[in-house]
Amino acid sequence: MFKKLFKQKKEENIVAPLNGKIVPIEEVPDPVFNQKMMGEGIAIVPEEGMVYSPVNGKIVQLAETKHAIGIVTDGGVEILIHIGLETVGLKGEGFASKVNVGEEVSAGQLLMEVDLEYIGEHASDTITPIVITNSAEGNKTYRFTSEKIAKAKETVIITAEDK
């Protein structure tokens, strides 16, 4: 009983993986994201094409087309960084991955270089959703920033806390 009473809640901060404008997930022009079908999240309209790890964790997914990266944090939060909308159709063009599946990463580590101009011309949008794919499990609560501008590697965009 005392363990539960005095157990400290554990928090994990998820920092911005990109520089740009922060947008609520509900404003992403794609129902898969704005209706939270994949989970809770936030989005960034990127200003430049460098994508950094928002957490310490492990790369568990790298789409063959390189448009999406999945990371599991040390605390079990599953994060999907989906670069742009309708970018799967680009078949990897405009993306240069700097990591591989199974690799341990540190917050701030470069994950991907992206040609935003190419994506802007050939995909429907450059907006990048950052989604907690296991948010529906209900063992954590999530707080989202009220900041409007993301500074990569610095701005805390999501805080995950054990319930």
Q: How would you describe this structure to a colleague?
A:
- By secondary structure, the chain is mostly beta strands.
- It has one domain (10-162): Distorted Sandwich (Glucose Permease (Domain IIA)), CATH 2.70.70.10.
- Helices cover 10% and strands 40% of the residues.
- The strands form 3 sheets. An 8-stranded antiparallel beta sheet has the order 9-5-6-7-11-3-2-13, with no helix packed on it. The chain has a 3-stranded antiparallel beta sheet with strand order 1-14-12, with no helix packed on it. A 3-stranded antiparallel beta sheet has the order 4-10-8, with no helix packed on it.
- The chain is globular, with a radius of gyration of 16 Å.
- The model has no long low-confidence stretch (mean pLDDT 94).
Q: What would the keywords be for this entry?
A:
three-stranded antiparallel β-sheet, single chain, 163 residues, transport, Glucose Permease (Domain IIA), 3 helices, eight-stranded antiparallel β-sheet, Dup_hybrid_motif, mainly beta, sugar transport
> How many domains, as an integer?
1
The oligomeric status of these chains comes to single chain
Order of helices and strands: HEEHEEEEEEEEHEEEE
Overall number of strands? 14
Q: What share of residues are in beta strands? A: 35-45%
Poorly predicted parts: none
The spatial strand order of the largest sheet comes to 9-5-6-7-11-3-2-13
Number of helices: 3
Domain PTS EIIA type-1: 30-134
GO molecular function: kinase activity
GO biological process, one term: phosphoenolpyruvate-dependent sugar phosphotransferase system
Protein name: PTS system glucose-specific IIA component
